[in-house]
Write a structure and sequence with these properties.
Shape of chain B: globular
Strand content of chain A: under 5%
CATH superfamily of one domain in chain A: Glu-tRNAGln amidotransferase C subunit, N-terminal domain
CATH topology of the largest domain in chain B: Amidase signature (AS) enzymes
Largest interface: A-B, 54 and 70 residues
CATH topology of one domain in chain A: Histone, subunit A
Distance between the termini of chain A: 34 Å
CATH architecture of the largest domain in chain B: Alpha-Beta Complex
Strand content of chain B: 5-15%
CATH superfamily of the largest domain in chain B: Amidase signature (AS) domain
Oligomer: heterodimer
Structural class of chain B: alpha/beta
Number of domains of chain B: 2
Order of helices and strands of chain B: HHHEEHEHEHEEHEHEHHHHEHHEEH
Number of strands of chain B: 11
Chain lengths: 94, 478
């Protein structure tokens, strides 16, 4: 089923840190759940179209006219760290 | 005066305020005090609320909702008021705007009473996944209220709010409504704007009312439904929502799917459900069996689709723009991974991982691609069924309220709570839960579902049945 390596790979994709003691439990839980959801593999779905949107809504483009926008200072207000121009984050490089 | 106020439904209270017999300020103060008292008790109370308005929160008496106080699930953005979606990663977040659904209700006269506790990011069926503590069921405080809109359901059931707003993705309005003995409704997908709703699964999330009775639910939906330029998936209902008035069910054809009303449902729930069907027959309804052959696979498909959408929607919680940020990060990647490790609870992490896995290269076709096709089959099953009947009836939930801690050790056991509600979510059709009786002293919910845009037929039928069933929820209001 879903092994340790797979868990670490998925965690990396999800930008989610997993401590050493959490990896085993996550592998077991994911294995159990994916085992259950894999039962959809039993069904014959040949020729069935996928549904991505249950109620079809088309032609929904608006006029190309500017609308009200959040002022910059309001958008930055809730940030853990910001200056006048933008959000501040640690550097990507170690 | 207190007992009298407590006995009024929201619509009745609005009528009294509009008629000048009751002041909006008095009504607000009454409920605010009750809500604040529960909040003050913390874990010792029902723990319904994550925020309660101050004494100055009362609004005017104008509009169809005439100042009646409204409790709103934590995940609705409310300007300047904490909106945390039950998560630590958004602790103290103050949005700069208000969700369309809430704004419309406020414009119609509703006064924001409180934000309600919920399962984190709307993921859960028991309100035990909240970073702010579990919510308790007012019928039995050792038991869960259901989830994810557990705080909203418990607040209405306990008379701490006249009505509340919740959201339903796989059953998160209907199931807690059933477990708490109140009315909960999920409208047709798209009827209520999702703008400002902190997202879980975008193709499934829908806002809806949790109320004491069906008439209140219709009133709340009427005032918030409708197309919104800020939500491209929103639409205008073909006919306006009407307040129900039907007294009988003559000519109403109700189909009962064997797949959702037999195996896996507790005996007491089934007994109460069948008795309610008898009442429907006495009102003139014709009951028949219908088949929903793919319904048994709905839960599995849902637990591929919803976590996949969640993994995408929750990628924004990275410590950059709002919410929590892990301190002393080595670098940007460390900040992302540690923020998300520290800020998300275990169920949210599970679903993000599951979703990421089923969308990842090599697995997409087998999981996500297949689940989308199962979704098509489920929608087709309903369409075929509705060719010969008007409404579908099932028990809302497989069990009555279970004990706190009983299912937290087994994620799959917890997921099964949504067995009867998930098919309707996948098909995007409207469904309502009304209390239909008690089993071992705990409420049982009956679910009615209709084709897309059948809100008025659904409200009329559930109203007529509700009146005939005469369920008394006042004992939970204490």
């Amino acid at each position: 089923m879903i092994d340790r390596e797979e868990v670490l790979h998925v965690a990396r994709l999800a930008r989610l840190e997993l401590r050493e003691e959490e990896i085993e439990t996550m592998a077991q839980e994911l294995s159990a759940i994916s085992g259950y959801v894999a039962t959809i593999g039993e069904l014959d779905l040949d020729g069935v179209q996928p549904t991505s949107h249950v109620v079809e809504v088309t032609g929904r483009l608006r006029e190309d006219v500017p609308h009200r926008c959040l002022p910059r200072e309001v958008a930055l207000e809730q940030a853990p760290d910001a200056n006048d121009e933008g959000f501040l984050v640690p550097s990507p490089q170690a | 005066m207190g007992a009298e106020l407590l006995s009024l439904t929201a619509a009745q209270a609005a009528a009294r305020v509009a008629g000048g017999e009751l002041s909006a300020g008095e009504l607000f103060a009454f409920y605010r005090e009750r809500a604040a008292a529960d909040r003050a008790q913390g874990a010792g109370g029902l723990n319904c609320f994550t925020w309660v308005a101050g004494e100055d929160g009362a609004g005017g008496a104008d509009g169809p909702l005439a100042g009646v106080p409204l409790a709103v699930k934590d995940l609705f953005c409310t300007r300047g008021v904490p909106s945390q979606s039950g998560s630590k990663i958004l602790e103290g977040y103050l949005p700069p705007y208000t969700a369309t659904a809430v704004e419309r209700l406020q414009n119609a006269g509703a006064a924001l009473l409180a934000k309600t506790n919920q399962d984190e990011f709307a993921m859960g069926s028991s309100n035990e996944n909240s970073a702010y503590g579990p919510v308790r069921n007012p019928w039995d405080r050792t038991r869960v209220p259901g989830g994810s809109s557990g705080g909203s359901a418990a607040a209405v059931a306990a008379g701490l709010a006249p009505w509340a707003l919740g959201t339903d993705t796989g059953g998160s309005i209907r199931q807690p409504a059933a477990l708490c003995g109140i009315v909960g409704m999920k409208p047709t997908y798209g009827s209520v704007s999702r703008y400002g709703m902190i997202a879980f699964a975008s193709s499934l999330d829908q806002a809806g009312p949790l109320t004491r009775d069906v008439r209140d639910a219709a009133l709340l939906l009427r005032e918030m439904a409708g197309q919104d330029p800020c939500d491209a998936t929103s639409l205008q209902l073909p006919e306006p929502v009407a307040l129900p008035s039907a007294e009988r069910l003559d000519g109403v054809r109700i189909g009962v799917p064997g797949e959702l009303s037999g195996e896996g449902i507790e005996a007491g729930v089934l007994k109460s459900f069948r008795a309610a069907l008898e009442t429907a027959v006495s009102l003139g309804a014709e009951i028949s069996e219908v088949a929903l052959p793919h319904a048994p696979h709905a839960l599995a498909a849902y637990y591929v689709l919803a976590p996949a959408e969640a993994s995408s929607n929750l990628a924004r919680f990275d410590g950059v723009r709002y919410g929590m940020r892990a301190p002393d990060a080595r670098d940007l990647l460390d900040m992302y991974t540690r923020t998300r490790h520290d800020g998300f609870g275990p169920e949210v992490k599970r679903r993000i991982m599951l979703g990421t896995y089923s969308l990842s290269s090599g697995y997409y076709d087998a999981y996500y691609g297949r689940a989308q096709r199962v979704r098509t089959k489920i929608a087709e099953d309903f369409a075929r069924a509705f060719a010969g009947i008007d409404l579908i009836a099932t028990p809302t939930a497989p069990t009555v309220a279970f004990a706190l801690g009983e299912k937290t050790g087994d994620p799959l056991a917890m997921y099964l709570n949504d067995y009867c509600t998930v098919p309707m979510s996948l098909a995007g059709i409207p469904a309502i839960s009304i209390p239909c009786g008690l089993a071992d002293g705990l409420p049982v919910g009956l679910q009615l579902a209709g084709p897309a845009f059948s809100e008025n037929a659904l409200f009329d039928a559930s109203y007529a049945l509700e009146q005939a069933l005469g369920f008394d929820g006042s004992v939970a209001r204490g």
